[in-house]
Amino acid sequence: MIWDRRSLLRLLWPLVVEQILAVTMGAADTIMVSSVGEAAVSAVNIIDNINNFFIIAFVSLCIGGTVIVSQYIGRGDMDNARIASRQLYYVVILAAVLVMIPIMIWRRLITGFLYGAVEQDVMDTASVYFLITAGSYPFLGIYNACAALFRAAGNSKVPMRIALMVNCTNIGGNSLFIFYFGMGAKGAAVATLISRIIAAGVLTAMLVRSRGGCSLKGLHRISISRSMAARILNVGIPSGLEGSMFQAGRLLTQRIFTRFGTAAMAGNAIASVINSFSFMPGTAYGMGLLTVVGQCIGAGDYGAAKENTRRIMKLSWATLFILSSFIFIFLEPLIGLFGLSPEAHAMAKSFLQVHCISMALGWTFSFALPNALRAAGDARYVMVCASVSMFAVRVSCAYLLTFAFNAGPLGVWISMGLDFLVRGSLYLKRWRGGRWQKKQII
């Protein structure tokens, strides 16, 4: 496929809409649960942080599948593209089940280890929410795998439409279970579970019937190709480890908020929700890079890979700058939507003021650009840089600024900005150096 400006736009705009829908679902959960009280908001926030540790691992495995399938499609080898598609499906289900079972058994132990200092009502609510959301892991894994396969083929409209369906199902379920049945945070978890089951089923059915390069036809005849699974894992495992290390570092910094009480936790939760809207286009552009660069490299056209990466990066930086500026200007009314206490409101405002600046300056290079490196098979370099920056910069600086320099919980958000700048500079240097062009994964 020739990636001119028009074809790039056709790929990217549905990805942006999909990210908006994904963030909207998270915001809807938080807004609806906030009506129950700050304890419920805090419980949902801390479990979502833990859930993200494992969800990122699933998504990272899907990155491996996206890269392999897109390179085969770029080469024109549809038979191997279909084999890789089925192997990705099997790998993701197995990983999700292996993670889900121990979490459902030891959820209280995990929550207590990470957030032992929280109030008992927050802990009780968190335990129930954790149990139900963990049960949705296999369906979430299937949903992410199928959506990744559609994107690898350059079809981003189908995942967008399914995301819209998921949003409607989730918001409708929230309204029913939280308000009508009075189930609180438990109701939000049940709505999430149902929406993920439906999305996984619909996408799987569509791909089984598809005849394209990402078809899952013959999925029921389970056949494991070790060589193909190894290719997927060669990209997916480093990406998964990177994502897990990122979330582990994030969990370590999130623990800081528990030492400053429920107001700090609620302020951080709401700041995180609003902040997620600012980087959703950047996330979409990064997903687009996986497809575009993967297909270009599969076709052996490194010049096109460089040019299209430059185009998408410019678009990402400009978009994030505009969004960050908008959020900075309208902070008061945005935070006011969540009905926080005055103390939590003030904290959320200070967190976001710092973050809007660092987001505009460094997010594109630190989180969108590495997808171009992954698409070229340079996932191990990305993993090493991300892990080193997370622990040497974000985690270390968070504790130093918060406790040694008395910056309070604001130190966590300052250290996040420093992390953006450090890892972004490392990725930019690698891309310009060109060593990624020597990688070969198919």
Calculate the terminal CA-CA distance, rounded to whole Å.
18 Å
Number of domains: 1
Which oligomeric form is depicted?
single chain
Largest β-sheet summary: none
Question: Stretches where pLDDT falls below 50 for ≥5 residues?
Answer: none
Q: What share of the residues lie within helices?
A: over 70%
What Rg is obtained from the alpha carbons, in whole angstroms?
A: 21 Å
Tally of DSSP helical segments: 15
Supply the helix-strand structural class: mainly alpha
Task: Report the strand count.
Answer: 0
Global mean pLDDT: 90
**Amount of beta strand:** under 5%
Order of helices and strands: HHHHHHHHHHHHHHH
Q: Which outline best applies?
A: globular
Describe the protein's architecture and organization.
This protein has one domain. It contains 15 helices and no strands. Helix 2 packs parallel to helix 5 and helix 2 packs parallel to helix 6. It is globular, with a radius of gyration of 21 Å.
Give a short synopsis of this structure.
The protein has 442 residues and is mostly helical. The chain has helices at 5-34, 38-75, 78-105, 107-115, 120-134, 137-152, 157-180, 185-209, 226-258, 262-298, 302-329, 331-336, 342-375, 379-404, 410-433. It has one domain (5-434).
